[in-house]
Design goal:
By secondary structure, the chain is an alpha+beta fold. It contains six helices and five strands; from the N terminus they run αβββααββααα. Helix 2 packs across helix 3 (77-94).
Length: 173
């Protein structure tokens, strides 16, 4: 009896920790790409802002964050903005408005945006595509389940000088 209880408890623990225990993806319509890592989506009843979890694309306009990034990375603010515009264009090229995307929500950020992993109709991860293309960073301060994988994708893009790693930034980490 004691042995079967331990086995049942172990099965429950494995089930709770398995990927299947994560929230299911919701299929939504992409309305608009706000910037490289932020989307506006429609679920049939509600319009929602989705922030891609675990990545950070450069800013598309002059603001405090663009100025902080420029100072930290020792590049002109205009360079940050150009890289941000390119990141947004990349996102729009692989995820044009009107397509259906799968959103796996993982919480909310301080601005009330849904933090999520986003998959394209062909199953590719938008978050990962941006990292592979050198259009996004994978900041260590962002806590999520794929942090090590994302850091490796960023490292490879930086090493292979893809995207903004080729044109804008030198290694700054």
């Amino acid at each position: 009896m004691k042995r079967s209880f331990c086995f049942a408890a172990a099965l429950l623990l494995v089930a709770a920790l398995s990927p299947a225990a994560s929230p299911p993806a919701e299929t939504v319509t992409l309305l608009r790409v706000i910037d490289g890592d932020t989307l506006r989506v429609w679920d049939g009843a509600t319009e929602t802002t989705v922030r891609l979890i675990g990545i950070d694309c450069p800013e598309t306009r002059r603001n405090d964050k663009a100025k902080r990034d420029a100072a930290e990375w020792r590049v002109p603010v205009e360079g940050i903005i150009r890289a941000g515009v390119k990141a947004r264009a990349f996102t729009q090229s692989v995820a044009p408005p009107g397509i259906e995307v799968a959103v796996t929500a993982a919480g909310e950020d301080a601005y009330g945006r849904t933090l999520a992993y986003v998959s394209l109709p062909d199953g590719r991860s938008l978050n990962e595509l941006l990292l592979r293309a050198g259009a996004a960073l994978a900041p260590a301060r962002y806590r999520h389940g794929r942090r090590e994988e994302y850091a490796e994708l960023e490292r490879k893009a930086r090493e292979e000088r893809r995207g903004f790693w080729k044109t804008l930034w030198k290694d700054f980490r």
